[in-house]
Design a protein that fits this description.
Strand order of the largest sheet: 1-2
Helix content: 40-55%
Distance between the termini: 43 Å
Shape: globular
CATH class: Mainly Alpha
Largest sheet: 2 strands, antiparallel
Radius of gyration: 14 Å
Strand content: 5-15%
Number of strands: 2
CATH architecture: Orthogonal Bundle
CATH topology: DNA Binding (I), subunit A
């Protein structure tokens, strides 16, 4: 079994509010290919470690970005500079995103049903 398979835990490795807060920060877009992930099936929307866990990357919001499953599968344990060596725009998107704070309070309100997620998505446009 590969390290990737042994460490895979589905979406249970991160709290739901933190995951949602990162999706909101990144405007529901894959930061690698810039694809909108607002209307995709949940399994097609993932988080990716900018610095892979295999290379010492942590689960901090400054190391996690919204990513489509296709890009996540392609990137695997590559460093950002290696994976995006021909895509400077992606590197810029990622740098701009990881310096922004996430809003876990808003994410918790959405998960609790206090705020409608779709109104947040529309107002973010």
């Amino acid at each position: 079994m590969s390290t990737r398979q042994a460490n895979w835990q589905g979406s249970n490795w991160i709290r739901k509010d933190k995951r949602l807060a990162i999706y909101l920060r990144d405007d529901w877009r894959c930061l690698y290919c810039d694809r909108s992930l607002k209307n995709v099936k949940p399994r097609q929307r993932t988080l990716d470690h900018v610095i892979p866990v295999a290379c010492g990357g942590l689960n901090d919001e400054t190391n996690l970005v919204t990513c489509c499953k296709k890009c996540n599968d392609r990137k695997q344990d590559q460093h950002l500079q290696e994976f995006c060596k021909f895509n400077r725009e992606a590197i810029q998107r990622i740098i701009m995103a990881i310096v922004k704070p996430i809003n876990r309070k808003l994410a918790k309100q959405i998960l609790a049903g206090e705020i409608d997620l779709y109104s947040v998505k529309r107002s973010a446009k």
